[in-house]
Specification:
The longest helix is centred in the first third of the chain and has 39 residues. The protein is an alpha+beta fold. About 4% of the residues have low confidence. The strands form four sheets. It has a three-stranded mixed β-sheet with strand order 4-5-9, covered by helices on one side. A two-stranded antiparallel sheet has the order 1-8. A two-stranded antiparallel ribbon has the order 2-3.
Length: 252
């Protein structure tokens, strides 16, 4: 139906242009040297102008509606086909991975510095207003010995945020279990504080990210990049230390 309507409009435009551009061959007009059909041409010009103006307005309305549709999809996070969409507050189209990593690194640095600033105090304790309005920041309030690193993954499709020197009593909860061989082993679980820190770092990275229609059901991946937060539990750190010790002994 839309195609038929478009075809009729195109035919009408061509017909009006033909009237405007056609040279008058009427004998009477040629004899007098003055065309008596100029009024028809002028009417055709007005009609063509109005028609083109309507088409221009319609195209503008369509573009505006389309822009609003996509704005709603990005705000909602998905479309009617199950594709996911989002755009981080600091995402910039065409921004290099180097600049994104630098931005994430700076945001973490600022959060750490802000966490070292004491709250407003009233004598020995916090004033009630400061206590009520203060928002806990997992990055700023994390233990001072924790170190952060931001690096670009191979292939420039990902950014890794590393957490190092995590205090064991702060970040981990030990659970003694029996493995499949009947031996007692220790399993390490993340503390809530470490989970909060990981989630906050992930949010910092995703602020620079965007998804333009990924769909895991169809293996469609349309993110600008991927954000990973990495760290080792105490068992892995112990294994790494033992591995390095044996390698140094082998070289000696």
């Amino acid at each position: 139906m839309a195609k038929t309507k478009a075809s009729k409009i195109s035919t009408r435009i061509e017909a009006l242009r033909a009237v405007i551009e056609k040279e008058c061959t009427a004998p009477k007009c040629r004899e007098t040297g003055k065309c008596g059909h100029e009024g028809e041409k002028e009417a055709a010009r007005h009609m063509l102008g109005r028609l083109l103006e309507k088409l221009k307005d319609a195209a503008g309305d369509e573009q505006e509606e389309r822009a609003q549709m996509w704005a709603d999809i990005y705000e909602r996070g998905y479309d009617s086909h199950g594709n996911t969409f989002f755009q981080g507050s600091k995402y910039r189209s065409g921004q290099s991975m180097k600049d994104r990593a630098a931005g994430i690194r700076m945001d973490i640095k600022v959060a750490r510095k802000a966490g070292q600033t004491p709250l407003v105090q009233d004598g020995p304790g916090l004033v009630s207003q400061a206590l009520e309005t203060y928002r806990f920041d997992p990055i700023g309030e994390a233990p001072a010995e924790i170190k952060f690193g931001v690096r670009i993954g191979r292939g420039y499709g990902s950014i890794y945020i590393d957490i190092k020197s995590i205090p064991q009593d702060w970040g981990w909860i030990a659970e003694e279990v029996t493995d499949y061989q009947g031996e007692k082993v220790t399993r390490w679980h993340r503390s809530q504080a470490l989970k909060d820190l990981e989630a906050e770092l992930k949010a910092v990275g995703e602020a620079y990210n965007a998804d333009h229609g990924s769909n895991i059901m169809t293996d469609c991946f349309a993110k600008a990049f991927y954000v990973f937060v990495e760290y080792d539990d105490p068992a892995t750190l112990e294994w790494r230390a033992e591995y390095e010790r044996k390698r140094r002994e082998a070289r000696a």
